[in-house]
Design brief:
Bound molecules: ligand TNX
Structural class: alpha/beta
CATH architecture of the largest domain: Alpha-Beta Barrel
Helix content: 25-40%
Number of strands: 21
Oligomer: single chain
Strand order of the largest sheet: 10-11-16-17-18-19-20-21
Distance between the termini: 45 Å
Number of domains: 2
Length: 521
Amino acid sequence: MKITLVILLFFFTTQLSAQHSLVFPEPVNVEQTTDNFVFNGLLTVDNTRIPSDLFSYLRELFGRQFIHLEPASAKDDATIRLKQVQTFAYTEGYQLSVTHTGIEIQYSSYASLCNAFQTLNQLIQNPKELAGIRISDQPAFAYRGVHLDCSRHFFSIGELRKFIDQLAKLKFNRFHWHLTDDQGWRIEIKKYPKLTSVGAWRDSTLIGHFSKQPAEWDHTKYGGFYTQEEARQLVEYARIRGIEIIPEIEMPGHARAALAAYPELSCTEKQLPVAGTWGVFDDVFCSQEKTRTFLKDVLDEIIELFPSQVIHIGGDECPKINWEKCPKCKAVMTQNHLNTTHELQSFFIQDIEKHVNAKGRTIIGWDEILEGGLAPNAQVMSWQGMEGGIAAAKQKHRVVMTPTSYCYFDYYQSGHPSEPLAIGGYLPLEKVYRFDPIKGVEDEYKQYILGGQANLWTEYLPTIQSVEYNAFPRLVAMAEVLWNKSSVPYSDFVEALSSTYLPQLRNDGVRFSTSFLDPTL
Ligand code: TNX
């Protein structure tokens, strides 16, 4: 009898803890109570504790749920009571409780306050009553990122704002903005105006016309760019929502758009167009000093625009074939006693790093920056697998894990024949949910793994709707991985996703895939 009771109790408690709450990503500790708070569509808060731009955002966020968030007339009668504390081990953690007397939030920082309000917003199911609850929460990883390639296809600032709103809801805290690549340079640089007057535009004959016959091809221009003012405003927009934007300027590879604008920066100095097809191209930035000076000038303007501690300098997929044949590169090698073009790549990145470090910032690059020796303070974004990241962590470099097998959201999410054409690969929702950014990392090096990131490369994602379709719901799974290491069983996550989160996405006008619901795919 006793044993049955224990088994029953065990079953009951694990069942309870297995369920996913209303909040995505699932908070670390959730205790449901029956001490409900009854109210009437109006929540009041001491807004002197909330920066005014955050308060305006929160009013708009809650307004979408038909909740009026108002400043409390007197501090003591606020229905949301805020208390700043210094005791949380993690700066982003918070505590939130709902009782019949109202809502109490304990927070420690701006990020923590944002996270608490995102949680509260998701708890609201009806504008008259909030179920009693006690939450104490903190993220598993400090870096929770999403990358979007705005070179292969261009997305307007309005579209990016809507996207960032969705990232904020899921408590992502980094937006990696891929601004340059072979097929388009997307950020205004005052010193080099041709980067955008020439480099932001390509002939759309081949790409963008997948479904057309050659006879139907036109030669219209495709492209666009962000002005510095627009970039500044987006940085601010994201900051208010607790998200830091990390800009990426690709070097020495993926440079065809820049070289179309300034051919003298390549080894051959040949005038080539902005790339009009996908892939990896042999024409890259020459390693000569003139080119490195150009890139330093570009980075100076980028550093002015983006306050992020890290600046992404690309570093991936740089064929060395032109460097091998280039007298200017040969001279750099001789002068600096370099034996191989891999060492030359390392020299190139280290030279750029010195410049960025002198401005008080840190570089981050794709894992090819390990080749020929890692720059002394560089952080590594490990994409080809976990190995690059593990090797970098062993050298005590900070790492963001973003292996293709778990993090490439340009891959197919199901095998259904109606899936839109993708770059290849197969990454279903469940696999994302099973991602572990510290798998295979020895205990003493785990501290160097900052977190993980989902990457949205857009060769095959021509519109923001197609980006959304590939992003959701896989981003919800990634948020769970990075916030709570997927603490809830997958089947419970999926159930809650369908009943609770997908309706919210629908409500927000965000496209998403439901292919995960079909177990045969
Ligand atoms: C590899 S990941 C790339 C990108 C492509 C992507 C397509 C990385 C650093 N480079 O240039 O868009 O694959 O999946």
